Amino acid sequence: MADADTDRLAARRPLSPHLTIFKPILTMMMSIAHRITGAGLYVGMALLTLFLLGAAIGGGAFSAVSWIASGFIGNLIVLMIVWAIFHHLLGGVRHAFWDRGLYMDPQGRELLAQGTLVGGILLTLLFYICKTLAS
Amino acid sequence: MTVATRFKSGRTGTGDAYVSDHSGSPHARFMRLTSYALAPLGALSAWWILGLAGKSFDGVRAEIGRPIPALVLLAFGVVGMIHARKGMDDIIEDYVQDQTLKAWAFLANLWASRAIAALWTFAILLIAAPK
Predict the structure, then answer these.
(1) Residues A64/A101, Cβ–Cβ less than 8 Å
(2) For the structural domain made of A26-134, what CATH number should be given?
(3) N or C: which terminus of chain A carries fewer CB neighbours within 10 A?
């Protein structure tokens, strides 16, 4: 009896807001992306460290790392690292605006979220284009 | 917490969930301050990292062997991994609920970040330090 009462009361309680409860909105997605790119850069730095160690030691060590780095997977990892740097950087700039109380209204924060997403992709593209032109 | 549990204030109590270690705002300030350095360092590093894939052994060493790329990448790696360690601490605090596992995760994060920063520095010095 007591259990049934408890269950009925529990079912009527409001749920704690969580990812599956909230409607997905851009500012929330950019917050999640900020965290994912941050964690991704941690892994990316570990992979780059392996690459640099290979280049520092030379010989077979370099052959091993460059076999992966010069292929499709290596280029994909570099693309993801470069994009993650820019996305995370712009995410930080967005926080710098918010720290100063700027762009906190609905339009403003939506604009910053869009700017983070588009800006990260544009800066990555720009760097790839400039690098191709420079080499 | 049940009705019988007396509330303990974070400032005065010794309870678990209600006690703050007062590290919140220093943490936020640290992340902001390091990010001021990391924004230019990260953009410049991205430029040189972009050139690494597909380069020959001599090409990679020539690129990283120059003083400015070497110093910028070095600073980015070290400051970046300190920033990344603090950021990963946040993630562990949010997602790892088991207290024992959490303590191990903090320790693993601390030493992984130190190892990455140290090996990163070591590799760049091996390539770029004047002989």
Answers:
(1) no
(2) 1.20.1300.10
(3) N
